[in-house]
């Protein structure tokens, strides 16, 4: 236990040292430069406050599992790196998903943009690395003879539903959501229902998942 706490403290101290090494404001700098530095310092302070809270949470909920300690350390470092950055991503599906199942997660495997590195093209999950209000948008492309409902999930809760198909030709359904997220919240898309059971979701750069930090 003592060794684990020391490890987390070392991670936090390294983050503090990194912040202290930032360039200092000098008397000869312009007003614009000073304003930029003040904004940057405010972001650094916000990041350190977030890291401090994560450290407290890690120590409070400490377990003997070393993997939990590693996860905590990663969260602390990630919070410092991501705080103050713009966050946005857009990812596309590159292959057909055949015979999709109910509650199947949809992995948009090809990130076109991933500023902040908070979206995973391997899991299809966006993990919030900066708390705030986000806009999410997704589109699903299927055939007219198929009917596919997908839903945007926040952690374990369904937030919104997108319907596509049930037309004479190929059909694309779209949906947009405005959502507040806290650090560590996870957002992804999954299949809610489909008819028939042989329904497919097609790629062709028409099935995609996009999100960005609004404020």
UniProtKB/TrEMBL annotation:
Keywords: Secreted, Signal. Residues 1-23 form the signal peptide. It comes from Mizuhopecten yessoensis. Residues 82-215 form the C1q domain. It is found in: Secreted. SMART domains: C1Q (SM00110). The lineage of its organism: Eukaryota, Metazoa, Spiralia, Lophotrochozoa, Mollusca. This is Complement C1q-like protein 4. SUPFAM superfamilies: TNF-like. One of its GO terms (cellular component) is extracellular region.
């Amino acid at each position: 236990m003592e060794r684990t706490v020391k490890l987390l403290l070392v991670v936090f101290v390294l983050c503090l040292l990194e912040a202290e090494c930032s360039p200092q404001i000098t008397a000869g700098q312009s007003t614009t430069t000073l304003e930029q530095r003040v904004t940057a310092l405010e972001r650094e302070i916000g990041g350190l406050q977030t890291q401090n809270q994560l450290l407290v949470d890690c120590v409070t909920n400490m377990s003997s599992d070393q993997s939990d300690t590693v996860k905590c350390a990663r969260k602390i470092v990630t919070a410092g790196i991501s705080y103050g950055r713009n966050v946005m991503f857009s990812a596309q599906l590159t292959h057909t998903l055949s015979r999709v199942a109910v509650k199947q997660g949809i992995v948009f495997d090809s990130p076109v943009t991933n500023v902040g590195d908070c979206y995973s093209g391997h899991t299809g999950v966006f993990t919030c690395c900066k708390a705030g209000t986000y806009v999410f948008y997704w589109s699903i492309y299927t055939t007219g003879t198929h009917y596919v409902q997908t839903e945007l999930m926040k952690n374990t809760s369904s937030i919104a539903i997108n319907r596509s198909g049930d037309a004479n030709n190929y059909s694309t359904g779209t949906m947009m959501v405005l959502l507040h997220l806290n650090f560590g919240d996870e957002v992804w898309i999954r299949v809610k229902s489909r008819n028939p059971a042989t329904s497919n979701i097609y790629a062709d750069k028409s099935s995609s998942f996009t999100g960005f930090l609004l404020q």
